[in-house]
Automatic annotation (TrEMBL):
Taxonomic source organism: Penicillium decumbens
Pathways per UniProt: Amino-acid biosynthesis; L-threonine biosynthesis; L-threonine from L-aspartate: step 5/5
Taxonomic lineage from the root: Eukaryota, Fungi, Dikarya, Ascomycota, Pezizomycotina
Domain Tryptophan synthase beta chain-like PALP: 92-338
CDD domains listed in its UniProt record: Thr-synth_2
NCBIfam families, sorted: thrC (TIGR00260)
Protein name: Threonine synthase
Record's keyword annotation contains Calcium: no
Length: 523
């Protein structure tokens, strides 16, 4: 069975094209610094809604992923097995259940925190961990010692990606995981989740700076040709295409959950609201919408780190620094996992919008032009701190997206209001950013159903939740504390502090030394 265009990938900056799914998963980031995208987005056959409506989460994942992965690369039964094992670790039978938060307002929460680390990242990272393992077992059949392909994962986290990646990869053969995180800027539970995993292949690195500094280090390591040739660098951040692909499932699954719900009004339009930082989660929604998911709009909900919201409000100017800001540094907010200055995955959206708004003759010409435009914009972002897109690109974005910015105070007020008006339901602060944005959208669009993504369990962010609710009578944090978190912070930890000023080169040397030790230990 030959691959279709949706199963072949290219870099948004043009240096690599016609790559297989396995290539893009193992490479993570393209050699030119671009992100991998499928050459085409598949559209669904007319029967999708009736055929897929009653599928389990796992079966739906299989149908969607099969559109992007050739059976020549992963035979159907193998893919089914990877998917089955990935979601067997979830605590909820529905994996991502839909909760009717406010029936009068048609406001639903898509609970994405029923995986091992209590955050939406588990949906993609349980899958990606098993996928890496599958490819490595296949590559290493019959090989021993130095002949074995060893993958060195380098990742950046503001808390959730790191723990989800570690739980997805701990103890797996032929893979080392290095997670950089900003010292003191992740919640104490998130830090404990990462650093109490003592498996030999897991390495946590604290960096003095912000998440963006960690992300820059990771991108610099990918750009280092020598390190890549000796260490096979791989990605677990949402720069890895498999992350986006795995997240599409819950957009479709929640649409079916909604339309099957007895409270759903037949024919009601649907808007999906996504707390956003690196733009990976909502990008999976955009792909789903392009494939045929009938979402009227996708709403980007940002905290005070609002580059995405400013893009829409400023007429297509994507800039690190707001016009009235004194600096372009990231703000520390109550939703720290979204404290991001630049949203990596926006590049993927821009590529498709540039491709579609070009009037070159052939699809190949238009792809080439899109790569040129994206390269130019990203160079301007680096050299001048921002860039302006043409109006056709902005119009393309506006066709599918709206945006909202939610302040710190509003985040806390939303946690409190929701607790008081929705039977004591406790939101995590990221989900609260989404719910505040949903409420604004509902005011403008009464009667429309809103699916608001709940991206983390509230117990991961105790200080924000406590700030919002400690004065409320009857509120007791211990009632929402999962069993898995009890005693976690007291366990033994392992973490390496990257010396201040060591830069990406310092991290590179740590990576080399730790991999060496690991390989010596395993031989
Ligand atoms: C809890 C939580 N909510 C929202 C986000 C934002 O998602 P994305 O970066 O995919 O936009 C993140 C981090 O990525 C997160 O950890
Ligand atoms: N919010 C993230 C930041 C990393 O984003 P990613 O989705 O690109 O991995 C986190 O919690 O680490």
């Amino acid at each position: 069975m030959s691959p279709t265009l949706s199963q072949q990938y290219l870099s948004t900056r043009g240096a690599e094209y016609r790559l297989s799914f396995e290539d893009v998963v193992l490479k993570g980031l393209a050699s030119d610094g671009g992100l991998f995208v499928p050459e085409e987005i598949p559209t669904l056959p007319a029967w999708w809604e009736t055929e897929w409506r009653n599928l389990s989460f796992e079966d739906l994942a299989y149908e969607i992923m099969s559109l992007y992965i050739s059976k020549d690369e992963i035979p159907g039964d193998d893919l089914k097995d990877i998917i089955k094992r990935s979601y067997a670790t979830f605590r909820h039978p529905e994996r991502t259940p839909l909760f009717n938060l406010d029936p009068k307002q048609n406001l639903y929460l898509l609970e994405l925190f029923h995986g091992p680390t209590f955050a939406f990242k588990d949906v993609a990272l349980q899958f990606l961990g098993n996928l890496f393992e599958y490819f490595l077992v296949r590559k290493n059949q019959g090989k021993t010692g130095k002949d074995r392909h060893h993958l060195t994962i380098v990742g950046a986290t503001s808390g959730d990606t790191g723990s989800a990646a570690i739980y997805g990869l701990r103890g797996k053969k032929d893979v080392s995981v290095f997670i950089t995180f900003p010292n003191g800027r992740v919640s104490s539970i998130q830090e404990a989740q990462m650093t109490t995993v003592l498996d030999a292949n897991v390495h946590n690195l604290t960096v003095e700076g912000s998440f963006d500094d960690c992300q820059d280090i990771v991108k610099a390591l990918f750009a280092d040709k020598d390190l890549n040739s000796t260490h096979n660098i791989g990605a677990i951040n949402s720069i890895n295409w498999a992350r986006i692909l795995a997240q599409m499932t819950y957009y479709f699954y929640s649409y079916f959950s909604l339309t099957k719900s007895p409270t759903y009004t037949e024919g009601s339009k649907v808007r999906v609201v996504v707390p956003s930082g690196n733009f990976g989660d909502i990008l999976a929604g955009w792909f789903s919408k392009q494939m045929g998911l009938p979402a009227e709009k996708l709403i980007i909900a940002t905290n005070e780190n609002d580059i995405l919201d400013r893009f829409f409000r400023s007429g297509g100017h994507y800039t690190k620094k707001a016009l009235d800001a004194v600096s372009d540094s990231v703000k520390e907010t109550h939703s720290p996992a979204m404290d991001i200055l630049v949203s990596s995955n926006f590049e993927r959206l821009l590529w498709f919008l540039a491709f579609r708004s070009d009037n070159g003759n052939t699809a190949d010409e238009r792809r080439k032009h899109a790569c040129e435009s994206v390269s130019k914009w990203l160079n301007e972002l680096k050299s001048q701190g921002g860039f302006q897109v043409p109006s056709a690109v902005l119009d393309g974005a506006k066709a599918d997206f709206e945006s909202e910015r939610v302040s710190n105070d509003e985040t806390i007020a939303t946690i409190r209001d929701t607790y008081l008006s929705c039977n004591g339901y406790v939101l995590d602060p990221h989900t609260a950013v989404g719910v505040a944005s949903s409420r604004r959208s509902i005011q403008r669009n009464p009667g429309v159903s809103h699916i608001s993504l709940s991206t983390a369990h509230p117990a991961k962010f105790a200080s924000a939740v406590d700030l919002a609710l400690r004065a409320e009578s009857g509120y007791d944090f211990t009632t929402i504390l999962p069993q898995e978190f009890i005693g976690l912070e007291q366990r033994e930890r392992r973490v390496i502090a990257v010396p201040q000023g060591a830069g990406w080169e310092g991290v590179r040397e740590i990576v080399k030394a730790e991999v060496e030790k690991e390989l010596q230990g395993s031989h």
